[in-house]
# Entry
Amino acid sequence: MHAPKYISHQFSGPDEQSRYAYDLNAFPQRESGTLLDTMFYFWNALRGNGASVPLSSQYEPRIIFGEQLPDLLSFVDARADNPENFVMIDHPKSSLDPFGSQLSGKTLGEFPNRLHRDALLLEYQICKRTQRPFYHEIDQIIGGISRHYVRLILPLVDFTGTISKFSVVTRRVSPTFRMFQTVEQ
# Structure
């Protein structure tokens, strides 16, 4: 099995998270047959002609799924210079507030948990700067909610070649559940 490129463990009050960033060489073995695999294959096929990043206008998942887009596929508007101003579009649903679809239309800077928000800002900034997919596993307890999932961030460019959007695909490793109630400070 492939080892992570780097591991980050963070704690803040009752919140904790471990983030494991993997090289894309680990991807085929870890994600074969998953939604992440399908979306990475689609993204990679759209690159064509040696382009490093596909055009946002060509990346249309409805080509694959029709109108029934998977719940764990979402988008982030990345046109802003500051990642705090990136806007979450169609954030995945969750029955556990405040980390579900109520985040749609909000900026990353408005994410309701500081520990997770700071890590998100860094990851999206890295993906935008490198113009390469960002593949990682996240195991966390934030706001009293336990979440363990894998996420793939796929950069997309506008007609000028500037990163304008991210396709974000997740796969749950274990069920999400509330462990205890907390209040964000």
